[in-house]
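user: Here is a favour to ask of a fellow structure person. I have my own habits and do not want them to colour yours. Could you put it straight underneath, so I can go through it closely?

assistant:
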Amino acid sequence: MLPASTHNQIGRRNFLRVGAIGGMTLPHLLQLEKVFASDTAPKSDVNCLFIFILGGMPHQDMWDLKPQAPAEIRGDFQPISTAVPGLQISDVLPQTAKVTDKFSILRSLTHTDSDHGRGFHIMMTGKEPGAGDFNGNQNNNQHPCIGSMVAKLGTPGALPPYISVPNFMNSGGPSFLGASYGPFVIAADPAAPDFSVRDTSLPISVNSARSSRRRTALQQINQLEQEAEKLSKQVRSLDVFYEKAFNLMTSQAAKEAFDIQREPDTVREEYGMTSMGQCCLLGRRMVEAGCRFVSIENGHWDTHRKNTWSLRELLCPSFDQAVPALLNDLEQRGLLDSTLVVITTEFGRTPRINDLAGRDHWPNVFSVLMAGAGIEGGQIVGASDKQAAAVADRPITPEDLTATILHVMGIDYETVLKTPLGRPVPLADGGKPVFELFS
């Protein structure tokens, strides 16, 4: 498959260029652009699986190999053919190579911060952070994360609109949107034998009748308090949490979605009995049940030492099993057209291998994968230079990635929200969707 820059012969830019040369009038151009835009129109029923590879995927060892570069740059992996003619990825991903027709590779992501925590914030929110320490698994958002944007503006379903597994993700919070738009956190590894999701069932000491009486009493008290207009914002917020918790505990759909034991052993084994595999499977169950945005963290990819060994022996095997299983499963269930899959990371790795046989942090250029929800598979968008050190074609920013996700999910990426003090805050901060991705 040719890169998107040549594969998509009728792109928006080409439309305008051809129109200018051919003497089309402005009304004609606007009409054509409207037709083109309709082909990539967002859908309000799309859900998202947002898989964050924590630590920094080495793009030149997985998605963007440079076999002609010197040994200290190209590394130990070899490019292999894939399901898409002309598209090659690393030999450390043989199973993923079989499903390249289902995803596109964006090879020209770029930003300027090589710190893990700040990189998390940039990629989780599409916004560069200001001063401060952004390391540590904490709610340190200066801008709402994408999941919270979806929770605020997306159409809700049966489950919480934003769920995070297997923990709260760094910079995965709602910022000024408020805690009610934060994630429902599944703080447990679904690969564990005793895995269960807390807070999805009533305490044993509280039966259904008693719970209903409590809820009715709360509603009556709230009505009196609201009439008196004496509720503080804090109490109102607690009521929101109570209502959400009650709905979750009494929802049969939620209980079933979180119960991964309902899956046949053959399906669980297809994904792999690893954290990556079972988180992806649980994520599929949650979007299938109506969760709008599921964030999945897969960590320990910070390969400053023994990069080759780490990828081959520890990191890529579970990834290479889980990702193809997820994409195949979504397709077989008829869910791929309504599920956006994003596989991202905070930055790439240095072009040159260091003295410890590792690669260090490199935000200048790196790769991200996107699949489903109208994205055409088998594409390459953008390119790095001969050493995988800089963008050579079609730079894509985190703001662009955010805008693309929101657009696909039917949310206006140009939306401007206001902080409690009235300061206007654009969601995607000037980013534009990567329209080359769409068929």
Observations:
- Residues 5-39, 201-208, 233-238 have pLDDT under 50 and may be disordered.
- Residues 53 and 345 are 5 Å apart (CA to CA).
- The first helix runs from residue 4 to 7.
